[in-house]
Specification:
77 residues, Immunoglobulin-like, four-stranded antiparallel sheet
């Protein structure tokens, strides 16, 4: 897994992530530790997210084998 880049940050629930490899698992977790979205990347290009998230702080966790990367981001609606 390459360096993850999430933009824009802050955002309104619509954002792009680059650096996730194909077949990489990911989770989006809120500040309380609840998993609000999870999936597996199908293509290794930029991944676009269009999520209906409440205003707050979230964490995108990329999981590939023994590599685990976390990015903090903010949603402002």
């Amino acid at each position: 897994m390459k360096e993850l880049i999430l933009s824009p940050n802050p955002n309104n629930g619509t954002f792009n992530v680059s650096g996730l490899n194909e077949n990489t698992g990911f989770m989006i977790v809120d500040a309380a530790g609840r998993v609000v979205h999870r999936g597996v990347v199908q293509k290794s290009k930029n991944t676009q997210f269009l999520l209906d998230l409440e205003t707050g702080v979230y964490f995108l966790q990329g999981i590939s084998g023994d590599k685990h990367t976390v990015i903090k981001f903010v949603v402002n609606n």
